[in-house]
Automatic annotation (TrEMBL):
Residue ranges of the region described as Disordered: 1-20
Pfam family, one: PBP
Source organism of the structure: Modicisalibacter xianhensis
Lineage of the organism: Bacteria, Pseudomonadati, Pseudomonadota, Gammaproteobacteria, Oceanospirillales
Protein origin, superkingdom: Bacteria
PANTHER family reported for this sequence: PEBP (PHOSPHATIDYLETHANOLAMINE-BINDING PROTEIN) FAMILY PROTEIN, UNCHARACTERIZED PROTEIN YBCL-RELATED
Protein name: PBP family phospholipid-binding protein
InterPro entries (UniProt xref): PEBP (IPR008914), PEBP-like_sf (IPR036610), YbhB_YbcL/LppC-like (IPR005247)
Length: 208
């Protein structure tokens, strides 16, 4: 398979229009345009019956204690975990593209609802956990929400956009399913996959 993520070149920085968090005016971070990029894919296996899209950042600090804290930094060497930014399954087998802004066009406080959309079946992303204690932002975050790495992190984050071609019309998922649950359900059903990886940082020293 071949995957194109419009506006994002493999191993190159992700434009701010696709980000949840952007550099602020006098502040380390402000809310960004948060548009999902357009995806197009081709060279699909003959027996494909559906697709799934997963976007994951494997560079998120496992210990969030010092995230976005003044006078503290997160060393590049510290332990890291996966943070899912987009989980969509049961995308119809005839689909070959998702339009820019079709699943997200701006930050939605408290999140977008998971479930059936015109694209496919939305799962939840990890902002659901990350913002759970925030009274203004806490909620269930379905669909796409873009990069927002800690601004005091010494590591540039990598965002893996992957489209999976599957041999089943439905993975049988429902409710608030996660990226890990989607990947588990895909086991034994993946015919092919394609990935484009973009990078992003809010650390002013790394952006120069």
């Amino acid at each position: 398979m071949k995957l194109t993520v419009q506006g994002i070149e493999d191993q190159q920085p992700i434009p701010e229009k696709f980000a949840f968090g952007v550099p602020g005016d006098g502040e380390p971070m402000a809310l960004g345009p948060n548009r999902n990029p357009a995806l197009t894919w081709s060279d699909v296996p003959d027996k494909t019956r559906s697709f799934a899209v997963v976007v994951v950042d494997p560079d998120v600090p496992g210990d969030p204690s010092d995230v976005n804290q003044q006078d503290k930094t997160l060393p590049s060497s510290m332990g890291r975990v996966d943070f899912y930014h987009w989980v969509v399954v049961d995308i119809p087998g005839e689909t070959r593209a998702i339009g820019e802004g079709e699943d997200s066009d701006g930050v939605t406080p408290k999140g977008k609802a998971p479930g059936r959309t015109a694209i496919g079946l939305r799962g939840i992303n990890t902002f659901t956990d990350f913002l759970a204690s925030d009274p203004d932002m806490g909620g269930t975050y379905g669909g796409y929400d873009g990069p927002c790495p800690p601004w005091n992190d010494e590591r540039v984050h990598h965002y893996h956009f992957t489209v999976y071609a599957l041999d089943t019309e439905s993975l049988g998922l429902a409710g608030e399913f996660t990226g890990n649950e989607a990947l588990k359900a895909m086991e034994g059903h993946i015919l092919d996959q394609a990935t484009v990886t973009g990078t992003y940082t809010l650390n002013a020293d790394l952006r120069q």
